[in-house]
């Protein structure tokens, strides 16, 4: 009953079953990371769509602030372009530049009481704030999934399966390399 062939067959079956479980875990984490990245892209698109409306509303009150409008427009264009063709690190950098430009725009709006009381501006500001919160939540979900995937890819014995099936580590969506993104917005008139 327990001859060496049966024992070898049981061990081999156990190893194959273990490899399948590990492989499926990698596939699940990779798909979760893709889903999380897609969630980020959806929220970024929503923000990209809100920005022109916000700029038009502010322009009506603060026409002489054209430099701020240009920086926001350029940052938005760069973020859209990088989002379509760049990697995660480049997308994170572009998004952080855009966030800084938007902070400057809102700081400028503080100098215009009529603008701050405008219902359209207030609604756009609320929607943009809501979108920023959703982007942050999506980033956290993405980074958590990437962390889990990277940990599994580095941990033994699952690292063996990762190497065999070429599961690669993914990049985090963060601002570690952009110290300017961590600084408060400075507005000078």
Account of the protein in words:
- This protein is mainly alpha-helical.
- It has a single domain (4-182), classed as LemA-like domain (de novo design (two linked rop proteins), Up-down Bundle).
- The protein has seven helices and no strands.
- Helix 1 (4-61) runs antiparallel to helix 2, helix 1 runs antiparallel to helix 5 and helix 2 packs antiparallel against helix 3 (88-109).
- The N and C termini lie far apart (88 Å).
- The model is unreliable at 177-181 and 184-189 (pLDDT under 50).
DSSP strand (E) fraction?
Answer: under 5%
The secondary-structure class comes to mainly alpha
Query: How confident is the prediction overall: mean pLDDT?
Result: 86
State the separation between the terminal residues, measured CA to CA. Answer: 88 Å
Which architecture per CATH?
Up-down Bundle
Total strand segments? 0
Could you say what the CATH topology is called? de novo design (two linked rop proteins)
Q: Poorly predicted ranges (pLDDT <50, ≥5 residues)?
A: 177-181, 184-189
Instruction: List the helices and strands in order.
Output: HHHHHHH
Label the overall shape.
rod-shaped
CATH superfamily: LemA-like domain
Which CATH class? Mainly Alpha
Number of domains: 1
Proportion of helical residues: over 70%
Main sheet?
Answer: none
Number of helices, counting only DSSP H or I runs of 4 residues or more:
7
Relevant terms:
de novo design (two linked rop proteins); mainly alpha; 189 residues; single chain
């Amino acid at each position: 009953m327990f001859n060496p062939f049966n024992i070898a067959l049981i061990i081999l079956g156990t190893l194959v079953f273990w490899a399948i479980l590990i492989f499926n875990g990698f596939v699940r984490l990779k798909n979760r990371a893709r889903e999380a990245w897609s969630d980020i892209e959806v929220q970024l698109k929503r923000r990209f769509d809100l920005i022109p409306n916000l700029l038009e509303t502010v322009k009506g009150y603060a026409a002489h602030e054209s430099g701020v409008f240009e920086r926001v427009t350029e940052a938005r264009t760069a973020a859209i372009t990088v989002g379509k063709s760049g990697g995660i690190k480049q997308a994170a950098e572009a998004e952080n530049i855009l966030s800084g430009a938007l902070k400057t725009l809102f700081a400028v709006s503080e100098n215009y009481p009529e603008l701050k009381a405008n219902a359209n501006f207030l609604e756009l500001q609320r929607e943009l704030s809501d979108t920023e919160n959703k982007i942050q939540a999506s980033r956290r979900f993405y980074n958590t999934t990437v962390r889990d995937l990277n940990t599994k890819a580095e941990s033994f014995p699952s690292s063996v399966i990762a190497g065999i099936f070429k599961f690669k580590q993914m990049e985090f969506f963060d601002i570690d390399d952009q110290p300017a993104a961590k600084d408060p917005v400075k507005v000078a008139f």
